[in-house]
Design the sequence.
């Protein structure tokens, strides 16, 4: 099924805090720690970033699917461009669609191979990611 890139924040339990100590879910890229919001239900994945305004240090939005697949995303109601990072079940980046803007709607973007995770962040193909639910 086609999914829109999310248009509302993830549930409060998954949102990063404004504290200097990261207390929510994070993605580690090498030595860098990046807070993420989680979209792990169909309703959350269908809501997301649409309608939001870009903010400095905006957390990434991690879409989590139950099984690997070729999930499609479009830019309906988006106000800014994003990078769509396609991640397999082993947390390996298998592709990146860079600077996908609102003007691309209704084009649908899909990965070249099945993925279990999709992330909005600016990183490169081949990067190894680590997911950590710090408390």
Sequence:
């Amino acid at each position: 099924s086609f999914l829109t890139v999310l248009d509302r924040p993830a549930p409060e339990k998954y949102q990063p805090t404004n504290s200097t100590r990261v207390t929510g879910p994070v993605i580690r890229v090498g030595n860098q720690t990046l807070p993420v919001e989680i979209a792990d239900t169909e309703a959350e994945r269908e809501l997301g970033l649409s309608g939001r305004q870009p903010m400095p240090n905006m957390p990434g939005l991690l879409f989590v699917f139950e099984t690997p697949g070729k999930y499609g995303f479009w830019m309906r109601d988006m106000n800014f461009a994003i990078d769509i990072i396609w991640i397999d079940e082993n947390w390996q980046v298998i592709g990146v669609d860079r600077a996908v803007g609102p003007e691309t709607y209704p084009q649908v973007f899909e990965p070249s191979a099945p993925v279990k995770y999709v992330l909005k962040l600016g990183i490169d193909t081949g990067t190894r990611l680590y997911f950590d639910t710090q408390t």
In short: The radius of gyration is 14 Å. The beta strands are 2-4, 25-29, 32-39, 60-69, 72-74, 82-87, 93-100, 115-119, 129-133.
